[in-house]
Automatic annotation (TrEMBL):
PANTHER family: IRON TRANSPORTER FTH1, PLASMA MEMBRANE IRON PERMEASE. InterPro entries: FTR1/Fip1/EfeU. Keywords: Membrane, Signal, Transmembrane, Transmembrane helix. Belongs to the oxidase-dependent Fe transporter (OFeT) (TC 9.A.10.1) family. Its main location: membrane. This is FTR1 family protein. The keyword Plastid does not apply. The chain crosses the membrane at residues 140-159, 171-193, 205-223, 243-260, 280-302, 314-334, 372-389. It comes from Deinococcus sonorensis KR-87. The lineage of its organism: Bacteria, Thermotogati, Deinococcota, Deinococci, Deinococcales. GO terms for cellular component: high-affinity iron permease complex. Residues 1-21 form the signal peptide. It is found in: Membrane. Coiled coil: none annotated. It is a multi-pass membrane protein.
Amino acid sequence: MRRLPLILTLLVLTLFGSGHAAPAPVDVPAQLRTAQELVSTSLREYARGDREAAFRTARSAYLDHFEYAEPPLRVLNPDLILEMEYRFADLRNGMQAGAPLTDLQRIAGDIGGSLRTAEAIVSGTGVLAPALAATGGFTILFREGLEAALLIAAILAYLASSRNGRLRAGVWWGAAAAALATALTWVVATYLIRLAPVSQELLSAVTSLIAVAVLFSLSFWLLQQGDRKRSAEFMRARLGRAVQSGSLTAIGLATFTSIYREGLETVLFYQALAVASGPVLNYMYLGLGVAVLALCAVFALLFRFGRRLPTARLFPLLVGVTAAFAVAFIGNGVRAFQEAGWLPVTNLYGVLPPINPNVSALTGLHPTVETLVAQLLLLLVYLAGWLMVRARTRPHSGVRA
């Protein structure tokens, strides 16, 4: 007990006895973002042939910014810090040795992924990011699964109308084969992406832009009743040929190709969403699990009540969500190209309010002019397309003869 006053005295002297002011707190997320921008800048300088400037910029990214963010991160995830130290060193050494630009882009892409992970660690997940990841996980599978359910129902209805019920087994075999092929496609795609000889940033960019193109076409396909009718007519023609052959294999193959297209789209969308989800990836899988349960209910109701089930009312909502994902993915795609050094960066840090990095990844809202312009342009295209579709589908006014 006698030592207590001495300990208190030393504590007071430590806190207040020094004549120096306490160091200002470090804005760790800001330091990590600045380090990322400098890494991207160094790649562009290297691509222009200015290796000395590229080396100095890469060194500044580490020494002047990342090192200031190290102390709290070293406590939270020391392995990540050690890994990033090696990667920064590889980037600087590669620039000094005159390594190929593609090799440096791969290293920079790994650094960018680690910096985003570090920013997510210090920022936390919050509530909005898990909610967005779960919503995405649910919506993608539910939309594609609902489309597959409607296709199966249409095929079965066609067989019933043509009095070829004996071929129903081929429909179920084709659907099961399509589900298995989709699962295998997911495994193979995940494996190949991990082994790809290019940077994760470039893979993320390409995957995101492909997903945008598919989502864009899907959005307007869902809105245009005429295209749906043409698709249905094409499917009936294929089924007609398969039914005429009287072969279970032909019916199964027709079902397989119709359903697997939906599965292939699902794999593509989930690959892009998985990259965006990052630390909240488990919430994406949670949404996926809920979608499986919801689809089981939809399947049961659909095959119990058939056409009386108002599934068409779901499509306008699904179109809106699909468009939102396309806007998010194009923002992430442009940002990934920036981090790989393929596109310029015009920062808006300090101009726009900060966004949680997990939310930013899931919405595609990054504080650069290029990403926001790309998202705005896509929104304008969606708006123009929606107005055109609405004008075409609006009933014409007039007096009947």
